[in-house]
């Protein structure tokens, strides 16, 4: 079963706009990670947020975590065409090292 | 380079053949993961190594799939009697290992396997 599920599945915005993606998960977690993937090959780690954190920033990225709702969001501010990619959340399954990825949000930023 | 490397980058084989996919993790990373990704899907966990041992192989779909990491560094994913449904991108990732700060996974570029 899916541990992380992203929403929306696809998102198309204009350059300069903000993009928000959401992730919901099922079991308790100790951390949640966001990854970006270009062209269906290797994933790039963006940010890790721990269960005792509510918000984390990295450059133009802002991640929030609500453990009571079992959800996280990734906000990309002032988007650029180069942000066009698929974005995945990943959570460890029930305290293990088995990371479960969602199906991803495909972001398209139009120049 | 200092990143995770995978070979081959592409592999085409015929149904029923045996294939081996190789992963070279980042030096010093004790944890190694294999994932499989089909088109339009997220990576699907296959197996996790901590050092030389497979700490969690619950994602391997059946006994045709096997992975080794004999010296705690390079890993090989082996698929016997390949089937067309095995066609996917196989991703390898490594991380520092258990402990605070060791969870971030660094992915290789993947091996695209096509079974004809």
Q: How does this structure look, described?
A:
- Chain A has 111 residues and is mostly beta strands.
- Chain A has strands at residues 4-7, 10-14, 19-25, 31-37, 43-50, 55-58, 61-66, 71-76, 85-92, 99-101, 105-110.
- In chain A, the strands form two sheets. In chain A, strands 2, 4, 5, 9, 10 and 11 form a six-stranded mixed β-sheet that branches. In chain A, strands 1-3-8-7-6 form a five-stranded antiparallel β-sheet, with no helix packed on it.
- In chain A, strand 7 and strand 8 form a beta hairpin.
- Chain A is globular.
- The mean pLDDT of chain A is 91.
- By secondary structure, chain B is an all-beta fold.
- Chain B is 0% helix and 47% strand.
- Chain B has strands at 5-7, 10-13, 19-24, 31-37, 44-50, 53-56, 65-68, 75-79, 88-95, 106-107, 111-115.
- In chain B, strand 7 (65-68) and strand 8 form a beta hairpin.
- The model of chain B has no long low-confidence stretch (mean pLDDT 94).
- The interface between A and B is medium-sized, with 24 and 30 residues.
Describe this protein with a few key phrases.
heterodimer, A: 111 residues, mainly beta, five-stranded antiparallel sheet, 11 strands, 0% helix, globular, B: 116 residues, seven-stranded mixed sheet
